[in-house]
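Homework help board

Subject: predicted structure for assignment chain

Our instructor gave us this sequence and asked us to write out the predicted structure in token form, then describe one feature. I got the tokens but I'm not sure how to describe them. Can anyone check?
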Amino acid sequence: MSDLAKDPWAKLRAATPARIGLGRAGAAMPTKATLEFQFAHARARDAVHSELNVEMLANDLLPLETIQVASAAADRVTYLRRPDLGRTLGQGEAAKLTEQNPCDIAFVVADGLSSTAMQSHAAPVIRHTLPKLQGLGIGPVIIATQARVAIGDEIGAAIGAKLTVLLVGERPGLTVADSLGAYLTYEPRPGTRDSARNCLSNIHTQGGMDYETAATKIAWLCREALRRGLTGTGLKENAAAIAQADSGPALR
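My token output:
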């Protein structure tokens, strides 16, 4: 009897990380599937509740200059219960930021809903991206804790950046707990709508978008955003152009 005849779900399971065709033991799932589910759930909870090690991340980013700021959410519990507070800087935090001249692009690193993603992937993504942005003015990397996407608007405006690239830990799931997202916003300012941003999602090393691919896409979007003076629904990713740029000696 073939393996497929023994387990008709085997081919589908091989094509997706989703939990399908797990079988059962009596009225419950098999022990192996149950333990794997509990482990994945624990990883997702840890990703949400763990604090970002800012000092370690700053060291990983050396020799790049970093500035640490915090949102208006005083702690992790408040951050999870009050999403609005994670979108703005805390009292006195804006004073840490001064206008950078010239500053075409500012990278903002926000812990978001997965500090695990930020700890693991933020520095490698930035390191892969910077060589593709030669000729542009890059500001210091801003590390924002208890932060959500919109905090990048206030930060970008404060330092005078034409464009912000905000890296944020995405909501963890039971398949991947350390997925990173990248949000690009031209002329960031408080009150910017989400429709005015471009987003890359699912950046991680477990079958997601790899660092080099993410860096190439981010760099292409950065240059196009600065050239056209916009991000969001008016700026569409051009896969062919990105591939051609990636095959050349450098992005221009």
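Reply (TA_rk): Your tokens look well-formed. For the description, you could write something like this. The chain has one domain: 54-247. That's the kind of observation they're looking for.
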